Each structure stands twice: as structure tokens, then as C-alpha cells.
């Protein structure tokens, strides 16, 4: 039976909803594909507001960078802001432009967990629940750390203003104590108001904090959305490997269940794979994986492990066909995920080394310990932003390569030549790496993460030499 997009997802699987958290957070950004006209209008309003906020912040950042071109340190600080603002906008626009691919990956992530709705039910549910826990630990702390960084940036200026007010109150003469004091905004972004006076300063302060918070929130949700999808794809490849490796045992179970089911109920057809009795019996027949070996556990009666009957061989071909179609579905899913994420990952790799470099340079040259918490947190965020997709993309590649090992271990040597040929095709296709890409510019992997960190260190050394010469 061909598994298509029209085939309903089993109720027990649909109930798990692996993307419940990420989809809900994505809807707050107006990026979750709409199913009704009301949702479409809501998304349009949210996206329009987000784009306008991004454009105003980017414009202000570049104008401020132009005004500060004579000050080396201010250029570095403005450059960090410009890179961050531009990255936020481009990520958001990528999600809007690739909305068809976004809808595809959302609609198919749950469907790609199973080959046969009667098999591996407990294993699938267990892995989905474990994956949802990991998704929570990726999404919530990751987003919280970025929001905390914004809080540290704002708190730095608030604390500076409070300290100055206390000193002025104690001495009674502001000019003699600190000279003319100018309150600073959280970000080096130009605003068309006189921020040196109240209430313009307070308005500009709140404007920057609110806009930057929304930008960072949407960016974090996009980042974690992609990472969580890659993580679940890795789990799906792991499950597919187990399904292929245990194909002989599982087909034997289905044949045994079919035989017993037809004996108990004459209304059940001998070839049916969808009876309730079959579901209950298959759940009782488990496999125990220990040290890479498969130990077959049966009830009081032993099941045949590798029958040589025509029925068994016919069922093995059908089962392998379903596994191959499932593999093709996963490959298509990765293609759509790459279309969605490739521009984002390329942008991330391109800017991460620059951000890490400028942040490290600011921490070294400033000589102020007050900015260290902000700079260190921001640097850690930048490392995490490129590190997470690199880690999970590497895990995806490893699980994709293990499909070949699983196919080789499926007792293909006991089957006809046609079955062996199909297994050979599976092995050859599985040897092609399955990873996140940056389009034609390479793949996302731990090797990329190491290259980004190395480049950041090289840029930092170069920047320090240029600054020392000045």
C-alpha cells in the first residue's frame, strides 16, 4: 500500500504531536502556515509589523554606523548591531518566501515516524516523547538566554544612569564630578528624536528594547524550529534502520498474527494487516536489542523466525517496499528542509565568525569589567547559534549512514535475488550523506563549527593588530 499524503496518520501517532511547542511559538511570530482565513489575516498583520520593525531598526543601525565612521571602537560596536539586525530580517524573510516548504515539513514530520501502523508502536511513542523533552530543552533555554542578553544590555545603561544619579546627588555638582553626562541607549541605533532629553530618551529606550526583543524572539524560534526538525529527522532515520534490520522478525510476527486471527474470526481475511487482534498480538512480540545483537522474545509458543514459504517471501518484499518508500519520503523531507534552512545556515555561518570576533575584541579592548557579562553572554549565544545545527546535522548524517548497516544486517542472504537487489539499492543510496547544507557552499557539521571558531580567532588577531597600529 502506497503511503501518500492522503493516507490518514494513525490516531495513536497523531495524538503525540511532536511539534506542539515549536508550532505554538512559531504562530506567535505569524510564521505558522494558516489553515483558515482568520489565521491568514492574523499572520499578515503580525508579519507586516515585524518587517516594519526590522526595517526601521536596520535603517537606524546603518545610519548610526555612518555617523560613527571616524571612531574605530564605535564602528566595531555599530557593525555588531548591523550584522545582528540584518540577520534577523533575512531569516524572517526566508521563512516567508519558503512558506510552501515550511508547510510541507510541518505536515510530514509526524507521518515520517512509521512504516506500518501496527509495528514499532511502543518504540515510536517512546522516542517521540524523549524527542519532545529534548525539543523543550533546546527551545526554552535557548530563547531565554537570548532574551536575558537583551536584559543585560538594557540593565547596563540603567545601572550607569542610577550610579551617576547617586554621585550627582552626593556631590551636588554634576559637571565637577563627571563632566557632562549623556545617557546612552541600549543599542547603537540612530533615532529621529533628541534622545538626550526626556521623555524622548525613555521613548527611544523602550522602542529599542521592545523591537529588539521581538526580533530576537522570532530569530530564536526560527533557529530552534529548524534544529528540532533535524533532531526528529535523525530519530526517524534511527527508527527506519531498526525497521529494516528486524524485517524478518516483524514479517514473521505479522504472518503468525494473520494465521491466528483468521482462525479466531472467520470474517477476517487472511491477508488483512489491520485487525485489532493483530495490533494487540504484535505489541506482545518484542525484540530486545543488547550489545548490537537482536534477541527474539516470544510468548509460550515460538514464532518462526525466518520461514521459507512463498507467503513469507511475498510479505518480505511488501515490507521492504514499504521501508524503501519510507526512506524516499525521508529523503524528500530533508530536501524540503534544506530548501528552507540552507539560506539561514549560510547566513549563520557567514556572520557567526564576524560576531564572535567583534564581541571578543570589544571585551579585550574596552578594559571595563562592567560590560563583560553582556559580552560573554552574547558570545555564548553566537556560539550556540551555530553550534546547535552543526551538532544535530552531524547526528543526522550518522543515522543516515547507519541505514546501510541495517540493510546489510537484515538477513538478505536468505531471500530471493529480487529482494537482494533491492537491499543493494538501499545500501548504495544510504551511503550518500544526509545532512543540512548551505546550498552550494558546503554542509552544516561539526567541522563547520570548528572552522567558524578558527576563523573568528584569526579575525580577532588581525583586528587587534590593526587597532594597535592606530
TrEMBL record:
<dbReference type="GO" id="GO:0007165">
    <property type="term" value="P:signal transduction"/>
</dbReference>
<keyword id="KW-1003">Cell membrane</keyword>
<dbReference type="Pfam" id="PF02949">
    <property type="entry name" value="7tm_6"/>
</dbReference>
<keyword id="KW-0552">Olfaction</keyword>
<keyword id="KW-1133">Transmembrane helix</keyword>
<dbReference type="InterPro" id="IPR004117">
    <property type="entry name" value="7tm6_olfct_rcpt"/>
</dbReference>
<dbReference type="GO" id="GO:0005549">
    <property type="term" value="F:odorant binding"/>
</dbReference>
<keyword id="KW-0472">Membrane</keyword>
<feature type="transmembrane region" description="Helical">
    <location>
        <begin position="44"/>
        <end position="67"/>
    </location>
</feature>
<protein>
    <recommendedName>
        <fullName>Odorant receptor</fullName>
    </recommendedName>
</protein>
<comment type="similarity">
    <text>Belongs to the insect chemoreceptor superfamily. Heteromeric odorant receptor channel (TC 1.A.69) family.</text>
</comment>
<feature type="compositionally biased region" description="Basic and acidic residues">
    <location>
        <begin position="265"/>
        <end position="284"/>
    </location>
</feature>
<keyword id="KW-0675">Receptor</keyword>
<dbReference type="GO" id="GO:0004984">
    <property type="term" value="F:olfactory receptor activity"/>
</dbReference>
<feature type="region of interest" description="Disordered">
    <location>
        <begin position="263"/>
        <end position="284"/>
    </location>
</feature>
<feature type="transmembrane region" description="Helical">
    <location>
        <begin position="346"/>
        <end position="365"/>
    </location>
</feature>
<keyword id="KW-0812">Transmembrane</keyword>
<keyword id="KW-0807">Transducer</keyword>
<dbReference type="GO" id="GO:0005886">
    <property type="term" value="C:plasma membrane"/>
</dbReference>
<keyword id="KW-0716">Sensory transduction</keyword>
<feature type="transmembrane region" description="Helical">
    <location>
        <begin position="134"/>
        <end position="155"/>
    </location>
</feature>
